[in-house]
Amino acid sequence: MSKVIEISPTTRHEGHSKLVLKVDDQGIIERGDWLSITPVRGIEKLAIGKTAEQVPKIASRVCGICPIAHCLAGVEAMEASMGVYIPDDAYLLRVILQCANRVHSHALHNILSLPDMYIPGTDTKINPFTPEEPVRSVAKRIQRIREIAQTIGEISGGECIHPSNPRVGGMYKNLQPRAVSKVYDLAKEGVVLARDHMEFMIAVFRNYQKRDWAEVGGMKVDIPDTLGYHNQGYMAADPLYGSSSLDENPRWDPARWNETRPWDWYMGEMEITDDYPEYPIGGTTPKGAKAWPQMEACTGVPLYDGQPVEVGPRARLNVFRGYDEKGTMAQQIARSMEFPDSFYKIIECCDALNTSASVMADEVPQGDGSLGWAANEAPRGCDVHLARVLDGRVQFYSMLVPTTWNFPTCSRALTGAPWQLAEVIMRGYDPCVSCATHMIVVDEDKRLVAEKLIQ
Amino acid sequence: MVQDIFLGNYTSCVAARSTNRAILAGSQDGGIVTQLFAFALEEGIIDGAIVAGPGDEPYRPRPMVATTVAELYAARGTKYNICPNVSFIKEATRSYGLDRVGIVGTPCQMQAIRKGQLYPVGLRDVPDKIALAIGIFCMENFPYQSIVQLVEDHANTKMENVVKMDIGKGKFWVYTERGAVIQLPLKITHKYEQPGCHVCLDYVANLGDVSTGSVGTPDGWSTVFVRSKKGNDVWSKAMAAGCFETKPIEEVKPGLELVTKLATEKITKNRKTLEERASFGVAKGLRNPYI
User: Fold this and answer.
1) Distance of residue B97 Cα from the nearest chain A Cα, in angstroms
2) ipTM score here?
3) What is the 3-state secondary structure (H, E, C) of B100-155?
């Protein structure tokens, strides 16, 4: 007889989501649904009729953690629709901005995922806020890495949160030589910290992988070797930056993308049959409450080649560098490995940047209403924005954000794990839920009607 | 610390001028701002300063981030019209990559900067990077069109000919390339003033770290108020380095008396404007920006 357990809300990630888990008598998940319950942002509707300059700025407001990814994807979707080619130096500035965003976001996620982990060689869980060593110096390093990344973002993008400099057609301003050397120096400092930090994080994750058990809310739980394994594919548009429909060989294909309703994908109405008040942060949902994942999920379910796919650091490494390890810890390790890469890329870009070149395209056509898309490799994965611009006004706008892709994939990955570790698996995806919430249409019977996004 | 309702709070007040002849050659009066920024730049107290640099048209200033002494020299002298220096304060910390910014401005610009430091809305990571704010005395400002009108229509000379403009001794002075000196009574200039200036209750830049202006001292000298800890620090270092020649303000003519007189005049007059605005219109008044 299987039981139904609900963890709501899930904690230590951005946004609001919950886990509805069908578990067997041993507490192993038979089927899990992870769904967003964040209220709708409505950005895609707000965008309609606005000018192409405004929309990426509005789009960036969807979330404060990766506004840079949304802003860049938005700007490039506009450029793709309008057919604007940006100068090389503007591209370099955007890459610097992108890397800065990635580093700060990954470092922040470390703070969120560390409390699940153990100090290697001990049975002590890591509290990132403790004043005791060795955790204290790690926390300080994370802060410094974030500070470096945010300062670099501020210089190249005008702001580290909601960057003001990316414009349709390029960037607002090129950097002064002094600013480039500041970025360079910061990145040089960052590389050293990032390398140490990567090694520490990998050691911590590998240690968790080797452990037999973990303690969750007073319960001793066996860690399966296959924690977080799934058989879905991976999707990534670029190892670092992105791709758009203007590229000679676009690395994302809208024809392979399809979106279905949560109604077709998630479980139906259920009653919660078991509760655990001792589960961390307020316990699980009390017995007797109802859960209806089909109705409650606030996202669409995007499919690539008819299947949910994983996006994110592991997907990038898998697609472009042949990294084939499976599971949650492998995902975390892939994320840690992106730290130094990002800093090296910033240094490369600083060397290549010509500070006296123009960073705005000479000509910015106003758009003929054709569909353009841009995929930006946000910290959490492939963030695709699609747009149609006609005479400078946005006719259609859609955001296909990383965590939307990861919801159904992660739901699959839950199967076979003890329910107490469901949140650990979920955190492996570094969920950023607020941007993943989409408009849905409900008909008279309160059934969801899929919104057809591309005519 | 002296506290004065018209002159603000200040730790010391002196008559000063730069000891550098090159600065004095192109400065409005004592070359205080240029000299102080140049000293701060060389000493590494600031990485760069936001100053009123040359614009596209003669005597139309544009904010400029000066990171070398040569660039500071290009911005010497008063231009008597609007230069939105504060608009560069964020950019200076971004694409210019400055960590310690110096800025010069009129009393209202000093107010904007201090407000921005208190409430950094849209100025993330800027407040702690403002290393030196120098205020300049200001009775009122002119739009660029007014200056063109005054010079070309009242003083009857082309803008391109002008080598210096000055307000002093109750007159607006225009000096031309070929040596002509035209003086216009301030009665004429009044109607060309920026109306927004008539609600300002600050004459001597009470919120600057250091504030300076020509009033109160003989030609070629400036009155300097040192106000804040930061200002005092820079000023005493500059003095120790021999950047300035000073005289006690009590020993020069016309001295603080005139400064107080003009400050009182400005503030009293503008208070009246504020009162008038409060009852302007039908059953409602214009807002007093100082409340």
Assistant:
1) 4
2) 0.87
3) CEEEEECHHHHHHHHHHHHCCCCCCCCHHHEEEEEEECCCCCCCHHHHHHHHHHHC
